[in-house]
Amino acid sequence: MSDFVGRPAPQTGTHCKPKQYDALYRQSVEDPDGFWLEQARRLDWYKQPTVGGSWSFDPVDIKWYTDGSLNLCHNAVDRHLADRADQVALIFEPDDPASAGRSLTYSELHGEVIGMANALKAMGVGKGDRVTIYMPMVIEGVLSMLACARIGAIHSVVFGGFSPEALAGRITDCQSRYVITADTGLRGSKVVPLKANVDAALALDGVDVDGVLVVRHTGAAINMLEGRDHWFDDLKSDVDCPCEPMAAEDPLFILYTSGSTGQPKGVLHTTGGYGVWTATTFNYVFDYQPGEVFWCTADIGWVTGHSYIVYGPLINGATGVVFEGVPNYPDHGRFWDIVDKHQVNILYTAPTAIRALMREGDDFVTSRDRSSLRLLGSVGEPINPEAWRWYFEVVGDKRCPIVDTWWQTETGGVMITTLPSAHDMKPGSAGKPFFGIQPQLVDNEGAVLDGAIEGNLCITHSWPGQARSVYGDHDRFDQTYFSTYRGKYFTGDGCRRDGDQYYWITGRVDDVINVSGHRMGTAEVESALVLHDKVAESAVVGYPHDIKGQGIYCYVTLNAGEEHSEQLFAELRAHVRKEIGPIASPDHIQFTDGLPKTRSGKIMRRILRKIAENDYGALGDTSTLADPSLVDRLIEGRQNR
Ligand code: WTA
């Protein structure tokens, strides 16, 4: 039986119909250089590129548009002054709906970005310098990114929910000499002490910067260190600040993301290819029409915020919403209040938010109008069909197509999705490859799998938005993404392809877990746990969680003489939050006298995953364990929890 739910009535003025998709896709894979040079015309270039891709996956060397030069701040801001200076670029919706919001036209945005760029220059920031941005979801966060792009500095945004320790690691890894932050931030009426966290990070051993730029947001009292800390208001100025011409392959930003091993990696994106990719995907995937209001609920601390709050929408001259708060404050109807208040046409959010709101019942949704909505998007993790249907039927009144967009920090923008009015939708399937994307499924040995089948998802050809490296560690880039299946980009995701050539992402197949749409390396949580002086060893796995998608399950062995207790559980939880941040809070800690290891000492995570999932029937071969009887004790421990 067909699992299509059909295609809602075609919208007016759509960018792509079914036959056009087929033709464009064919062209994009048969003549990628021609196709992507054509798409590059979406941007203004100081020097229009004549070269498309120059890349190899073995050895790994990825470049696009090598002879082009441009500036993405110019593309996102200045070039719109000619025909949409008075159109709203950004609408700010504060945490507290009773507080005053604000909106900036493109002309006002231009003035504010120049103010921020001048403040950065006044601190000494120049082309190629790394600037760490640790901000709440306020317009100044967007300004910070654009101001860096304007003067050729490389931004590294760190999510405001990360702890001082995590922030410090990200500052030192890229030798960033500058930080932009705010006094405090607000999320669901809770205060986030951003500046105090920056102070704490900079007080750690070996962490040092030349300047901290502080945006006054809530007006909370904070400490300012003479000579190092500067108020944005004191340094900003409106003297002319032209955009710095950048080579297409000059770095634009670093964004830290979790992998299966070690500490987070600084994924590096460059200017030209990333700009073309975000501009093109935004245009087609969201089928954006001039004048529409687009709202991506992500945080600028994640790649979704980079590509679809900042670069994609602004390069396209769209009107976007910047929301400081959370979906359940003051009540579970907040999203729909915002949709009505700002007449949002396109909403782009995460399955975890959809599931959390679905649980609260339909009244919060149906009591709001929502008639402005035209298109809905999902990103960050697989969306279960039940949540998909609720999103489609209740939120979108069955009128609005859903785009379930699969992509990653490393891909720069959307890779697999249906396109509105080009494709029928299937709940739970991301759909078809975007232009230029050639997915391939392989088995664990790397053999290519054809037809309707499940396997490990690789991409065989480069695309303009692809990450170029891991900052400062190109070998790690090669090792992480191109060595599992030599010559292919390996995504780390499992995927099924059905008979209609639709792709269904099944989730990570490596040691990365996806908690509320946030990527987390189990290795990071493990190293945080063993830092605690009572912990001897730990192993962390994901397990299915109704709202978060995956929860964090930790197995912990204690040092000799230590007793486990509820209090120690709370202590370890607090410890992980301090080391990484609240998003890494363990959901369960199971104390155990040992971890299942092979005789050569390798932890058998497969077994730990199954036990955490309460799935004891499929433990597989346990005979190679050094201590097979441990499995029964682990199961008992799981059941007694
Ligand atoms: C997962 C977020 C299924 C996937 C843009 C990927 C998804 C990881 C989807 C990247 C989706 C993202 N369906 N899974 N529509 N979107 N993922 O780097 O496992 O924060 O590898 O980028 O999220 O997470 P990241």
UniProtKB/TrEMBL annotation:
ATP binds at G380, E381, P382, D404, T405, W406, W407, Q408, T409, D493, R508, R519. It catalyses: acetate + ATP + CoA = acetyl-CoA + AMP + diphosphate. Residues 524-602 form the AMP-binding enzyme C-terminal domain. GO terms for molecular function: acetate-CoA ligase activity; AMP binding; ATP binding; metal ion binding. It is an enzyme of class 6 (ligase). It holds the Pfam family ACAS_N. The keyword Lipid metabolism does not apply. Residues 21-76 form the Acetyl-coenzyme A synthetase N-terminal domain. InterPro entries: Ac_CoA_lig, ACAS_N, AMP-bd_C, AMP-bd_C_sf, AMP-binding_CS, AMP-dep_synth/lig_dom, ANL_N_sf. Acetylated. Deacetylation by the SIR2-homolog deacetylase activates the enzyme. GO terms for cellular component: cytosol. Residues 78-461 form the AMP-dependent synthetase/ligase domain. The modification N6-acetyllysine is found at K602. Mg(2+) binds at V530, H532, V535. One of its GO terms (biological process) is acetyl-CoA biosynthetic process from acetate. Signal peptide: none annotated. SUPFAM superfamilies: Acetyl-CoA synthetase-like (SSF56801). Its cofactor is Mg(2+). Its EC number is 6.2.1.1. Belongs to the ATP-dependent AMP-binding enzyme family. This is Acetyl-coenzyme A synthetase. It comes from Parerythrobacter jejuensis.
